[in-house]
Records
---
Amino acid sequence: MVRTLVGSQILSGVGMACGIAVGALLAEDLSGTEALAGVGTTAQVLGTALLTIPVARATAARGRRVGLRSGLAVAFVGAALVLLAAVLRSFPLFVVGMFLFGGGTTANNQTRYAAADLAAPVHRGRDLSVVVWATTIGSVVGPNLVGPGKALARTLGLPELAGTFLFSLVGFVLAWVVVDRLLRPDPLITARALDAADREDARRAVEPDVVVDPASGGVADVPNHDGSMRRGLAVVRRNPRALQAMLVMALGHLVMVSVMVMTPIHMQHGHAELEVIGFVISVHILGMFALSPLVGAAVDRWGAPSVAMTGGVVLTLASLLASRSQAGWSGLLLVALFLLGVGWSCTLVSGSTLLTSVVATDERPATQGLADVLMGLAGAVGGVAAGVVVGSLGYSVLASGSAVVGVVVLVVGASRVRSAVTVG
């Protein structure tokens, strides 16, 4: 199962990273104004958030495989619409395409939870982080396909910035095939069956003569497979640790998106070449995913709150370094973007592991879906605000404000809360 999830992450990572590398530049080109440069990435982030809702419901009802396939299929349609928008010079169509393109990130986000479904509690952080790490390969390769994408686009008579989205189409199709054919048995459905068997064994140990309802599959209490956001909110209201996990992920994502989305524009102002911009974004994505197994091991050894606090410190440092970088290419900006990715990895892995650990198996799709919705909305707000701030006050002010949010992540991670329900 883990090998299958790793394979799908590599392929879908290529698809997503290609679009991230040129999304802001294509938005500026089609809209004709820098003020709207962040709208494309914001639409993608917003799409990631809102598309999580139907994907979570599908996952709860029919398992991980159905949820992941639906997210990847929507992303394929989005990439196709972005290509069409570039040809037609239609900014509104581009925004719609980027919104649907966010389905790829929705699928990627849900994949990490699939890795945790059957993991032993003492290795949950490790297993989850290995799948997150797999995105490194595709995500680092993706931005470096900007150059070949330009050449391919010229050959096919397409706008240069749209060429990389051709690689996105291929990546999403191959990831869909891997999930459809190889993710068997379904990890969430299997985890539910194991939990049901454990409950039945425990009941019979206490009440050996109990008569169970055959219609429930041999288990007296029928599980609730509701994956709605309403159920997720109900879980969070009675589980403070679940709320803590969600806040760590959402705030970490807010910082990362705010700085990352406007970095290509900041570099372009300094006349950096498109290939150089792609290289910096690839190093940023390397920071996001390459060290995740170490982050997961740290979570298993020292606990999620400690790693979340570390993430807050790293995000603050990265933002401060970015605020002092000059426009265009600089070593300082490269270091800042790498650290920005590392800090985000700390908040994602620690928050995801904590959330999975403190909710019951049947509650996972709803609460995990809600967590990703909040992450996406935080990123969307950050993307919109980033464009406005850079357009009026500059990149330095944006990065300085992000450092303040990094401190908030540190405070949330340090909070001492007790959960009403602890699982595993």
---
Amino acid sequence: MEKVKIGIIKEGKIPVDKRVPLTPKKCVEAMQGFSGAEVVVQPSDVRCFTDEEYAELGITLQQDLTDCDVLMGVKEVPVDQLIPNKTYFFFSHTIKKQPHNAKLLRAVLDKNITLIDYELLTNQQGQRVVAFGRYAGIVGAYNGILTYGKKWKLFDLKPAYLCHEMEDMQEEYFKVKLPPIKIAVTGGGRVAGGAMEVLDKMGIKKVSVFDFLYKQFKEPVYAQLHSGDYNNRPDVEVWDSPDFYAHPELYQSTFRKFTKVTDLLMACAYWDPRAPKLFSEEDTRQPDFKIDTIADITCDVDGSIPTTKRATTIIEPTYDYNPNTGELEPPYNRKDNITIMAVDNLPCELPRNASRDFGRNIIDYVFPQFFNNDEGGMLGRATIAKGGELTERYKYLQEYAEAAAV
């Protein structure tokens, strides 16, 4: 088989992302497992894995990647750094017509680039195969507990981004001493799974939705809430998940019952803009609205959580929402404000662990397709552009891309 030269690019987007698609060990594993693969790495002074860590394992460091066939990054590649006529893998954030990336898609077409978007890599069942969701959940839940502890002056946790690895972060768990609060975790995917991992390891007990709503506890507890627990369709008695995902606009939120008993909300559920919001800003002004801390881990600005008015940064992860005025204020100022954690790049706080997980998925799911003529069609389904044109599935982006040329 002829060699395919794969270049791991230096991340060019600002603010800089420290994650990598393949760690040093995963580069070695890729070359050992796929005889056609040769992996080189563009030097970078910002990666969570240093150039030395790659070099020590015999991975070639190479500044000029124009002789590579495939280029792999994590975030969007700046337009002036795109090399024409190559195949690129990265998160392009173009499929929802995100305004700030129209120029990027235009450049991909102009430069005859084949763009494969990680977000679109799915198996035959439509489930994503590579994602950072688990680490968003892990860091998000940790940040949520950190925020609650800080708000009520209960304990001080070291921020996740100051921890070298997840093991260092887990050393902080023993500091967590919570009163008998109730924590609601929404969602059933990777993100919610990561969040519940943290709560379990902190020794916080999981209870049923019924018990969460109607029982009192002498210890902190959490419940996992699925869509059917807080949405209903007024004209249909029985919950039907496929119907909800197909027609979310026909549903209304019943989350109000949870706002009366929940202290800390961890929002981990994927949200469709057609679906109802969990609650309204008006609800937050009701005397029985109990939630005072929200970790919006999915971080949809003005999405399922109406109090998430903007995203936050790793360095300044929180702000307060004042229910009486609807305005945002500095965090931890007033106890009757709702404190919001809305970091939109949570996995970047544990970049080494997140990158290991991601690389594992690339080797297990993506490379077998790549080096086997895309037998299951996974790469084809995830290819947005090829040969200077949008592929059939993504033709709807044509006007979006063309508008950027003006």
---
Amino acid sequence: MDTSAIMGALWIIISGILVFFMQAGFTLVETGFARSKNAGNIIMKNLMDLIVGSLGFWAIGYTVMYGETIGGFIGTPSLFYNEGADMYNLFFQTVFAATAATIVSGAVAERTKFSTYVIFSFIMTVIIYPIAGHWTWQGEGWLTDLGFVDFAGSSIVHSVGGWAALIGAIMVGPRIGKYKDGVSQAIPGHNLLLGALGVMILWLGWFGFNGGSQLAFGSEEDVIAVGSVLITTNLAAAAGAFAALMYTWLRYGQPDISMTLNGALAGLVCITAGCAAVTPGSATIMGLIAGVVVVMSITFIDEKLKVDDPVGAVSVHGVCGALGTLLIGVFAIDGGLINGGGFALLGVQATGVLAYGTWAIVCSYIVFKILKVTIGLRVSEKEEIEGLDKAEHGIGVYNE
């Protein structure tokens, strides 16, 4: 390997480590936004995303995603990938797969069987996510041929995870006491400090998530590109948090803490697809839009659709992932609507958003349906009231 290739590999490895650390952020966000009696169960679910994701993606998922294409739809699978010169790429893509799986965890928190979740997580990382990734990132996928843009995964990772989370939340049903006479009841998380720390860790990890997706760092062009990606990522996150803060302040009379935190995540998710394709100014506008949309979406899904999503995962990842992917068609420097590109790119982006949404929803429904009629999705009422820590794992997190 020449120096350029070595520098590129080093950047991908460092970025992969940052993305790995995001799993700690997801764990803290979900734990903080849930009740203390379920903290241990949440820790175990997020840990299992890494465990089964690492094993399954290495065993077969990586080749399903990056193997020689079969009709632009799926890679040619092979078992137990072991190409020495490419192992750093396997690591980088593995932590992305674990991220896609863990999005589902928050939406089904506090009432889902641990065994059921582990099985779904495995299927997500070896089938659902890798096939989705093949369509765009393998290089010969059918969406690649259309000119679809998703630089780091607003749709491929986040929307796929978000729509799977929606189906999971619908099928497992709301937590006991969440809706009384058709009216949503607030079930506050037990520790917003944990949630805030989790968001900050995720924000940090996102620099690896988006910056590492340049997949090179061996030339002046790469350095400029990565720097631009880091700036657009950071600005969108800040704008998303600011917009959510101001919107809740104006609407409810107080700046909402949890919504502001989710606003930062919404901005990050929104910019992930287009972080290399838009200007810093456009990234800021995209973040502002996402910060408002995520609050409206969380409220709509909770109060109107009556889908219980304890952490807002569907809105943050599903809705804002789709939003960010579409907005590339508006703001992209090359081909965006406001830059004289017409509606062509917007149409391609809409096609991709629809394809990924349909794929995730259909596959997740099939998997959850099979699990429901076999081992079941939900713990018993007694176990839910007692808390999943004691019921599923025999011990609580906060013990005196």
---
Amino acid sequence: MEHGDKHITVVDENGNEQLCEVLFTFESEDFGKSYVFYYPIGAEYDDEEETEIHVSAFIPGEGEEEGELQPIETEEEWDMIEEVWNTFCAEQEEGDEE
């Protein structure tokens, strides 16, 4: 995966592939990582309804290499991610009001 990709394929623990839509990516200088928010294709993102949003750290691929998703490992990362998500949601609500 690269910054700016619109779709990613996620492989679950059973080896099943799921095509997902990228909602947005961001980088954290504090943790030295990039993160991606995404949701399964078919479960269209709608801020009015519950959509299961996933988040992972990722290492961008180089050249033709695929990037690699990684789990969030610390409570501090989750706190930072929650803050970014809340900011994103607030910006979406402001955009809807205009």
